[in-house]
Protein backbone atom coordinates (compact mmCIF):
# COMPACT_ATOMS: atom_id res chain seq x y z
CA UNK A 1 0.00 0.00 0.00
CA UNK A 2 1.26 3.49 -0.81
CA UNK A 3 1.79 6.03 1.97
CA UNK A 4 -1.10 8.38 2.68
CA UNK A 5 0.07 11.96 2.19
CA UNK A 6 -2.13 14.95 3.02
CA UNK A 7 -1.57 18.67 2.65
CA UNK A 8 -3.12 20.99 5.21
CA UNK A 9 -3.12 24.74 5.64
CA UNK A 10 -0.43 26.04 7.99
CA UNK A 11 -3.16 27.02 10.48
CA UNK A 12 -3.73 23.27 11.13
CA UNK A 13 -0.12 22.61 12.18
CA UNK A 14 -0.68 22.80 15.96
CA UNK A 15 -3.69 20.48 15.77
CA UNK A 16 -1.76 17.99 13.63
CA UNK A 17 1.17 18.03 16.07
CA UNK A 18 -1.23 17.43 18.98
CA UNK A 19 -2.93 14.49 17.24
CA UNK A 20 0.31 12.90 16.03
CA UNK A 21 2.01 13.39 19.39
CA UNK A 22 -0.80 12.14 21.61
CA UNK A 23 -2.79 9.59 19.61
CA UNK A 24 -1.73 6.60 17.56
CA UNK A 25 0.70 3.77 18.02
CA UNK A 26 4.42 3.63 18.66
CA UNK A 27 6.79 1.39 16.72
CA UNK A 28 5.88 -1.57 18.94
CA UNK A 29 2.18 -1.07 18.10
CA UNK A 30 1.42 -0.02 21.65
CA UNK A 31 -1.05 2.84 22.08
CA UNK A 32 0.63 6.19 22.77
CA UNK A 33 -1.87 6.86 25.56
CA UNK A 34 -0.39 3.97 27.58
CA UNK A 35 -3.83 3.11 28.91
CA UNK A 36 -4.04 -0.69 29.30
CA UNK A 37 -7.74 -0.80 28.46
CA UNK A 38 -7.45 1.30 25.29
CA UNK A 39 -8.87 -0.71 22.42
CA UNK A 40 -8.53 1.93 19.71
CA UNK A 41 -6.48 5.11 19.58
CA UNK A 42 -8.83 6.52 16.92
CA UNK A 43 -11.78 5.91 19.24
CA UNK A 44 -9.75 7.50 22.05
CA UNK A 45 -9.11 10.57 19.89
CA UNK A 46 -12.77 10.97 18.95
CA UNK A 47 -13.95 10.35 22.51
CA UNK A 48 -11.56 12.99 23.86
CA UNK A 49 -12.85 15.47 21.29
CA UNK A 50 -16.52 14.74 21.96
CA UNK A 51 -16.03 14.83 25.74
CA UNK A 52 -14.03 18.07 25.60
CA UNK A 53 -10.79 16.56 26.87
CA UNK A 54 -7.52 18.24 25.98
CA UNK A 55 -7.41 21.14 23.57
CA UNK A 56 -9.35 19.56 20.72
CA UNK A 57 -12.48 21.69 21.15
CA UNK A 58 -10.26 24.79 21.30
CA UNK A 59 -8.66 23.85 17.97
CA UNK A 60 -12.09 23.24 16.47
CA UNK A 61 -13.20 26.70 17.55
CA UNK A 62 -9.98 28.34 16.29
CA UNK A 63 -10.39 26.66 12.90
CA UNK A 64 -14.09 27.57 12.84
CA UNK A 65 -15.15 24.08 11.76
CA UNK A 66 -18.47 22.37 12.30
CA UNK A 67 -18.46 18.90 13.88
CA UNK A 68 -18.52 16.91 10.63
CA UNK A 69 -15.66 18.86 9.04
CA UNK A 70 -13.55 18.68 12.21
CA UNK A 71 -14.16 14.94 12.59
CA UNK A 72 -13.02 14.38 9.00
CA UNK A 73 -9.93 16.51 9.65
CA UNK A 74 -9.08 14.50 12.77
CA UNK A 75 -9.52 11.24 10.84
CA UNK A 76 -7.35 12.43 7.96
CA UNK A 77 -4.57 13.52 10.32
CA UNK A 78 -4.79 10.23 12.23
CA UNK A 79 -4.41 7.99 9.17
CA UNK A 80 -1.84 10.10 7.32
CA UNK A 81 1.67 8.76 6.94
CA UNK A 82 2.98 12.21 5.96
CA UNK A 83 1.48 15.64 6.55
CA UNK A 84 2.62 18.62 4.51
CA UNK A 85 1.66 22.19 5.27
CA UNK A 86 1.08 25.08 2.92
CA UNK A 87 0.95 28.80 3.63
CA UNK A 88 -2.27 30.64 2.89
CA UNK A 89 -2.33 32.24 -0.56
CA UNK A 90 -1.66 35.94 -0.54
Short description:
The chain has 90 residues and is mainly alpha-helical. The chain has helices at 13-22, 41-51, 56-63, 67-79; strands at 5-9, 82-86. 47% of the residues lie in helices and 11% in strands.
Describe, in plain words, how this protein is organized in 3D:
- The longest helix is centred in the last third of the chain and has 13 residues, at 67-79.
- Strands 1-2 form a two-stranded parallel sheet.
- The chain has 90 residues and is mainly alpha-helical.
- Helices cover 47% and strands 11% of the residues.
- It starts with a strand and ends with a strand.
- The mean pLDDT is 87.
- It has 4 helices and 2 strands; from the N terminus they run βααααβ.
Amino acid sequence: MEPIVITLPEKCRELAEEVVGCYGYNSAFEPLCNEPLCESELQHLLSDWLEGAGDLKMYQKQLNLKNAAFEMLLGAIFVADLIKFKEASQ
